[in-house]
Amino acid sequence: MVAYDRRHIWHPYASALGDAPLFPVVSAEGVRLRLADGRELVDGMASWWSAIHGYNHPALNAAARRQLDAMAHVMFGGLTHPPAVELARRLVELTPEPLQRVFLADSGSVSVEVALKMALQYQRARGQNGRTRMVTVRGGYHGDTFGAMAVCDPEGGMHSLWSGALPEHLFAPIPPAGFARPLVDADTAELADLLAKHGDEVAAVVLEPIVQGAGGMRFHSPAYLARVRELCDEHGVLLIADEIATGFGRTGAMFACDHAGISPDIMCVGKAMTGGYLTMAATLCTDEVAETISRAHGAFMHGPTYMANPLAAAVAVASIDLLTSGPWRDRVAALEAGLRTGLEPARALPQVADVRVLGGIGVIELRTPVDMARVQPAFVERGVWVRPFGKLVYVMPPYVMTADDLALVTAAMVDVVENVHTG
Predict the structure, then answer these.
(1) Is the pLDDT of residue 102 over 90?
(2) The pTM is what?
(3) Is residue 197 marked as binding?
(4) Is 246 labelled as part of a ligand binding site?
């Protein structure tokens, strides 16, 4: 299996000529992955942050089987179906009240493309044809498609290769670090200056609220986010919140925007929406955005083949119901407490630049990049699955992880950083 994979399959963010460690998984249950050689790994990554209920969950399995017996897919042009309607109902009920319209997309990156296109078409519908640029912040990550790449960090991010080929947007500094940091005028001064100077060119401000994910796993304050909302209102631009990684409880609030008590004009959600079972995302917007576009242009010009896939939508409904009917706040709070306790010893290590925790997110930031060829097998040897990148050794565990399993994961993180990644 591994030999054929190496010859024919190209993995994410990897060389086709590489020989990076590769571990075949044959099954998954709860928070554990079972490898082909029989070893079990406690998964600290929740399948890139999506499998919040763990693997092979009976309720999600049952939802998939029920829907599969009815229909796996049907086109969404001119048709509708119960799973799509029920999913939209759940999303409208959960998200901030002004978000009343739901566009179902194939993936997180596509939902960002949809959001950017919505913002541009909205401005054109208002007669603001010159508003063709976005304002965002450095350190961000919004996906791997071209529109999404254009609003990722242009220098420090993973898409710097495409400089010159992407649309050129406007970048404010990385938000000041610290969830509890008090806001001062200097924190948003450059962002305010960009909007003052280029306001007639800007369609929207787009950012990841509270937590910048794959661009650096940084946390900023709700006060900063609230000020961004005010600046958008002052300059007549839309606010796009990319909640793909932060949505559905990951930061300790249902959505990260809830920490600041604000609503964006457009919100992207995905990842945990289907509990890690199937690819699906959504872009929500206000009535104002949807109706302005529709009155002026008659239609919003986007429509993926697998839009509103009934199988994915049915599992998403079950996943959201499972989340909201359970003690998710207590579970995320327990993860936060366990991560703080378990990762604290790393703070004293000379190779560690920072340790930070928020909700179900735990991060050890190193002073030098991780050597994946050494570090990845070391985690497997310790019975855990942790997938570092750059200078970051981080986890976003399933919400159902026990205290003992979490302690195993955090102990492995500290051990590997201390004894394998020696700086």
Answers:
(1) yes
(2) 0.97
(3) no
(4) no
